[in-house]
Specification:
Elements: E1 2-10, E2 16-26, E3 29-32, H1 46-60, E4 62-65, E5 73-74, E6 81-82, E7 85-88, E8 92-95, H2 103-110, E9 116-118
């Protein structure tokens, strides 16, 4: 299993650096994930690292499906009936009407990313 969450980056001396990455920890190995894995210098707070991963999920891991549901559901923003949705990787899915089927809507609905455990 992989344990995801913000963790302090080790400094050159092996102690904490005061900077944070959103990471995956497994079998004594900790690696940055999302945008933090792409040369990020780290963040001043764990909250900033969470937000960086949230931005990554919304920008890189959202699948928009138009008229794809078998039964209509209410849009999570305006309650209009819809067959469309946005899925955030294995995280969650949100029924959204055509007007609200946007990354901005998903960002609003997603909220803060908690620590989590996953096999991916």
């Amino acid at each position: 299993m992989n344990y995801y969450g913000p963790r302090e980056v080790d400094g050159r001396d092996g102690r904490g650096s005061g900077r944070y990455h959103f990471t995956s920890k497994n079998d004594y190995r900790t690696e940055p994930v999302g945008y933090c894995a792409e040369g990020c210098a780290g963040h001043e707070t764990a909250h900033e690292a969470r937000e960086h991963f949230r931005q990554y999920l919304v920008n890189e891991r959202v699948d928009f499906r138009v008229n794809h549901m078998k039964r209509p559901e209410r849009c999570k923003i305006c309650a209009e009936w819809t067959l469309s949705y946005a899925r955030v990787e294995a995280w969650d899915y949100y029924p959204l009407c055509q007007e609200h089927l946007t990354r901005e809507s998903v960002l609003t609905l997603l909220g803060e990313i908690p620590d989590f455990v996953a096999a991916w």
